[in-house]
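job 3f2a | input accepted
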Amino acid sequence: MLPSIALSEAWIRFFLAIAGLVLAFAAALFSSVARESGNLWSTLILASVALLLAVFVGVTTVPYLAKRVAGARIRDAVDYKVTKFGLLYVSVVLLIGVAALNTGNNLLYIIVAAMLAAIAVSGVASAVVLRDLELDVRLPEHVFAGEPVRGRLALRNPRKWMPSLSVNVAPFGKQAKTKQWQWKPATFAFPPRRPPHEQWLKLPDRRLQRVARGAVANPIFSGTTYFPYIPARGELKADLDFRFERRGCYREESFGLSTRFPFAFLTKIRRVVDMREIIVYPSVLFARDQIELIPRIAGEIETFFRGRGNDLYRLREYMPDDSARHVDWKATAKTGSLKVREFSSEDNRKLRIVFDNPSPGILSAEKYEEAVATAASLAWHFAKESEVSFANHDSAEGADLHRFLRFLATVGPKRSSSLLENLKSSDEYNIIITARNRDDIPTFLLNCSFLMLLGPSERL
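job 3f2a | predicted structure (460 res):
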């Protein structure tokens, strides 16, 4: 088997540029020969081909090769794209240039020189506009899936006297090219257009293809933000609304500051390396069928902690199995019926939420996401009312709510031992989310836990 050979796109463009310049030089020579022989149409066609090839190489190859220079400052200075209007403008310059060459009219030469100078001025002015600009990206600290949040882009111009005009801010990956030439394995078959079982010759082969490079997963930003005018020593801010539909880690490696100022011939792009990352928590909004769990769980928690402490919990009617020493005689005298005091727990109703991560293949993707969202919703709800701790596979048991939500934001099915085997007995009431069978759960947890079984035959 032949080794995998990756041919850099820079070399491909370099060889194509050499071939284009050789053809342009040959067309120019033949144009001179045709002019000496008096063939006007051949002179016009060959001169046009020479100019078109030279401009094509200059537009498509020279900027790309310039960006490959090691120096970051030089690379930023030559990072640009030619716009459609710029291509139309260059075509007009070529036509006038061909007319100037064939007629020898000095006025046409002056016009061509002025039009070429406008292209140079456009490149220099756009580079000056982007120079020294500072970008500040401000994102919220806590983000939940499905809920709108707001971020802010701040673009600052530290120059003393020169403003910046018409600047766009966008993720740099949206503007950079993400493909390269690479040799890929293939098969040479003959006859070529017949079904595989009817082809009588098959040989190993290699094929040159453009392959997309790996892109950053889950980008934060999409689209562009436009800043029309940033004054000298001034700052312009733009508020952006975000809405992340799924939990997970979202990352942006760098941003691009671009402008078409002043003539829109070129789009100059300056890269700003400023990595930003957002951890999107699961949604904490209960679904309709999950809302019924709240009073049920709260009732079991109250039953578990009722009567275990010295602080008064509530007054209720006397029951035959109640002790006479708990009768509240003042309340009995006021109401005319026996009233009994109940006491709350001294440990202030401590809870422990346990997410026992199942192994791959046990739950469907939809049901797994439902379990993660339920764990996050319960944690968010009871953290406001009780003293809650959290237990999961990736970290030690603790009471940090946002740490538990960060774990749920990026968790996925993982093959490991059950978390329930390592839980220690305590006075806490447990809310356990697990895919294990009830028979496999330790006995000491059954009497002080609310179990949410995630088996295929049971629903949350």
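job 3f2a | Residues 140 and 158 are 26 Å apart (CA to CA).
job 3f2a | closed
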